[in-house]
Amino acid sequence: MIKIKPLPPTSIEELQQRAFTLAGKTLYQLALEQGLCVPTTLHHAKGWIGQLLENALGANANNLDQPDFTSLGIELKTLPINAQGQPIESTYICTAPIPNRDPCFEQSRVWRKMAHMLWVPILSLARQPIKHRQIGTPILWSPDPLIFHDLKQDWEELMELMSLGHFEDLSAHKGKYLQIRPKAANSKTFVRVLNHEGQMISTVPKGFYVRTLLTQRIIQENYIT
DNA sequence: ATTTGATCATTT
DNA sequence: AAATGATCAAAT
């Protein structure tokens, strides 16, 4: 089977136009266009839907530490939602740099991705085969000043804990919209870090995630059923 | 080894 | 039921 991947969109309008043509399609339809089969379970294909959408839209960052549409500075995220339009899962953003290499929120990996995002809702109903999941109307989104403020505050709080070596206080419970969670192949994976007493300790690599509290707001305020 | 794409599974 | 912590696969 030949895999069809368009060139990256050259403008926001082109990306938006492409994205809108996907609305209403099922994963089966989209996969067929790419000569792919939809897996019956995501147990061993957790990122499959995200990759399908990247291919369909011409994302070109691959696994680089950059927004998916590099030249447009736009990050693509699929967002599973239920019948009520509520997000089912939190959203991974990027790895947390340990030790910190981001000078400030405005120049952080988190902000580079969150400044401009294309959310593609995936209507994911229980007991429905994955191939029948339907693509929703995409949402081109940027944080408003209030959200920006909260994200920045979360980032600064979380980065301060890490920079000061307070890994024992760092958990998914911190942060209003952003949180830090383990991000590794498994819980035995570790990196060496300096704790707040200056000692080398081991910890599991971390990633930044967005809580459903924020994605729920984005859906409520922007989603067209 | 690391970053991407996330969802799974256990705990609360 | 929702949130946290654990895990899986591909690309480089």
Can you put this structure into words, describing what you see?
- The chain is of the alpha+beta class and 225 residues long.
- 28% of the residues lie in helices and 19% in strands.
- The chain contains six helices and nine strands; from the N terminus they run αααββαβββαββββα.
- Strands 1, 3, 4 and 5 form a four-stranded mixed β-sheet that branches. The protein has a three-stranded antiparallel β-sheet with strand order 2-9-6. Strands 7-8 form a two-stranded antiparallel ribbon.
- A hairpin with a 5-residue loop joins strand 7 and strand 8 (200-203).
- The longest helix has 19 residues, at 145-163.
- It binds a DNA duplex (12 and 12 nucleotides) through helix 3, strand 1, strand 2 and strand 6.
